Amino acid sequence: MVSLLICAEKPSQAQKFADVFSRKPGKTDGYIECFPHRLFPNRDITITWTIGHLTELQDPAYYNPEYEKWNLDNLPIIPETPALRVKQKTAKQFGIVKRLMNDPKYEFIINGADAGREGSLLFENTYRLAGCQKPVKRLWTSSLEKSELEKAFDNLLSRESKHGLYLAGAARQFADWLVGINSTRAYSLKIQSSGTAKHFGGNSVFSIGRVQTPTLAIVVKREREIQNFKPTPYHELWATFKTNVGEYRGIYVKAPDNRFSQKQEAITQESLVKGKSSTIKNIKREQKEYKPPQFFSLNELQMEANKRFKWTPDQTLKTAQSLYDNGYLTYPRTDSRYITEAEADTIPSIMAELKMLFPEYQPFIPNPLPYLKGNKRYVDRSKVTDHYAVLPTKKIPDLNSLTENERKLYDLVVRSVIVAHMEPAIMEYTEFLTSVGNHSDFLTKGKVIMKESWRSVWFDKNQKDDDEDNEDEADQEGILPPVQEGMPGMVIKTEIKDKKTKSPKRYTAGNMIQVMKTAGLTDLTDEELIRTMKEVEGLGTVATRAAIIKELETREYIKISRNKVYATEKGIYLISILEQSNSILAKPDLTAQWESALTKISKQQYDANAFIKQVKMLANKSVADAKALSMGELTELQTESTSKSVVKTGPTSVGECPSCKSPVMEREKFYGCSNYKECDFKIPKTILGKNITKTHMKSLLTKGQTSIIKGFTGKNGEFDAAFRYNLQTKKLDWIRG
User: Fold this and answer.
1) Residues assigned a catalytic role
2) How far apart, in Å, are the Cα atoms of 432 and each of 152, 216, 435, 446, 447?
3) In the chain, what percentage of residues exceed pLDDT 70?
4) Is the N or the C terminus of the chain less surrounded, counting Cβ atoms within 10 Å?
5) Burial of 257 (0-12, 13-18, 19+ CB in 10 A)
6) What are the φ and ψ backbone dihedral angles of 28, each rounded to 5 degrees?
7) What are phi and psi of 246, to 5 degrees?
8) Is 661 exposed, middle or buried (0-12, 13-18, 19+ CB in 10 A)?
9) Shortest CA distance to 674 belongs to which of 684, 659, 686?
10) Are 278 and 435 in contact (CB under 8 A)?
11) Rounded-to-integer distance, Cα 150 and Cα 111, Å
């Protein structure tokens, strides 16, 4: 019998495909076998998967053994065409897919990878490296609901119809390789030759990439703004007024920002209004409706979890991935906040079961549930990209089986669906002036929640929304007495507040996601590039931004402490070097230009070879720029980038080695004995998903064990524990909390 092979992008996707058909009994490894189906009569069906990318580009040494060693004279490294190899971590699955693809019994193959550029690339790379030449058809759907999958399987596309996406993906992959390999080697070798690298710990590698480097530049720019900021003192005059309906406060109105630069001016004005009569005028009242938030994409979920729980984007992704792997959430790596009609159809039954199982949701889920179909704020097929928004699935978890973090995130996603069915909240804003004498006006503002609606579900008592996060505004806001136009009163109290202008705020780990999404929009001038950056949403993708932030931290370009992001001395130094070279690699312009070209390639409106030719010229220029830097410029830049407010990154001692009594040094990825030629004491900086801090290490080295550390992630979920170093086994002994 002629058979059919379907290749999914990941195992969970393959399981969803199999739900459309009827599975054959028996255990298989790396694939699923199904009986013939009305969609494909008289054909056995086999479904396999790729676990994401099974292939990667070859290392430079593949093209020339001399490239194994880093040498400035060997640069640039520019192969004519890229070569692929099998990823070692997934070599077993590649072998399974290759065997199935080349099995004569399969008449053709269905590419069931994600509907997008990367999905097209990963399938085609696997198909080509497997040496397969069979006909291919393309499954194209953003939904994994059974009814939608059946429609997609019944309307398969030709391979050629989406070939442009593969060409764009392959061009992007090779371009990133060319720029990353050459720029990283060139600048690292140049810095090492100057001796400067020793300042950062040995022959430090200065990794450079199209996305990570402009992201770093944004953090460095903010770091410099904070370092260079000089606070300016100013003064505000406040008055408390008494009327026959109650008291209220107001700030003296002084153009342009209600501030006195000299305190004596405020004192003089205060003397003119103390104890004087007042009159209310120019009352403005406005009611505003606030709709519930939209569903979560991954990036919005990461930002909200950071705001609420102070999680890093990587923590949120790992937690969401765990819930997805267990079947409780839909696919989390999505850039869409919308769903299709098929997903909307599943929501009422899911909400009904949640209401039945969990008392905390019962007051907020009406029966019957309002239908979301037709509500374009949530249900809009045209705005669903590779995947739809993050939703709870039909599989409801036992909350006791979830870790604390999983419970928090699951609850957050559930609430995002609940509030989508609720009416807008209503706020009433009041603003008026109080006149004292002929020339003194005081401004008063107030905000009252007229209708709580979805806010009662969304915000807890300790959480502020964005409107409440302004300190100066908070001084004025609150429930005001029922004042009327022309109402008389009296100044019963005055206060001069001495303040200083504040430096720009540091980015948090969460709003770094938003910073990456909007990168370049304020600096670009070309309308087409601005439009492109809006379409692709800045630097990185929804699935890679957390990894980029993590990579910058791992490379010690940035430091995240108490949820605040700092540029390190090493990070500032690298950006200074690139600025000295006037390199485009530190600017988001490069991503805008590339994405504009890649979009045209995907539509087959631009030749991929022409794009790669331009990238090869850029790689050449990047190497030439690095070689042209002089030793003097490097020394000068090192001095300029040093500041006591910057987090230092060189090796520092954290205590005495328990094995040989030599100093234990903090390195890039571990804490290790400085006597490393004879002593092998080493503790990784990350253990089971938790960062091991210098405080933990100092406790281990002085007290023999760490304090209890919360949130390790093991095979059975999260756990809290301390650990000590066993000198006999040279391994860690766990002490459960």
Assistant:
1) 331
2) 59, 45, 10, 9, 12
3) 90
4) N
5) exposed
6) -130, 160
7) 135, 180
8) exposed
9) 659
10) yes
11) 15
Say if residue 530's pLDDT is above 70: no
pLDDT digits (tens, 9 = 90+) for 534-571: 665 668 777 788 889 999 998 889 999 889 999 998 99
Strand partners, 158: 137
Nearest to 575 by CA among 76, 190, 219: 219
Q: CA 693 to CA 713: how far, in whole Å?
A: 17
| Confidence category of residue 637, pLDDT binned at 50, 70, 90 | very low
Q: Which pair of structure tokens corresponds to residue 249?
A: 């406060």
Closest alpha carbon to 490 in 272, 276, 238: 276
Residue 524 has a pLDDT of 53
What pTM, to 2 d.p., does this model score? 0.77
User: CA 101 to CA 111: how far, in whole Å?
Assistant: 11
State how far the Cα of 450 lies from the Cα of 287, in Å rounded to an integer. Answer: 9
Determine the pLDDT at residue 202: 54
Phi and psi, residue 459, nearest 5°: -100, 135
**Is the pLDDT score of 641 beyond 50?**
no
Q: How far apart are the first and last CA of the chain?
A: 59
Q: What is the CA radius of gyration of the chain?
A: 30
Q: Please say whether the beta carbons of 223 and 505 come within 8 A.
A: no
Q: Which residues pair with 444 in a beta bridge?
A: 432
* Phi-psi label, residue 105: left if phi above 0, alpha if psi -120 to 50, beta otherwise: alpha
Tokens in use for 485? 């136009």
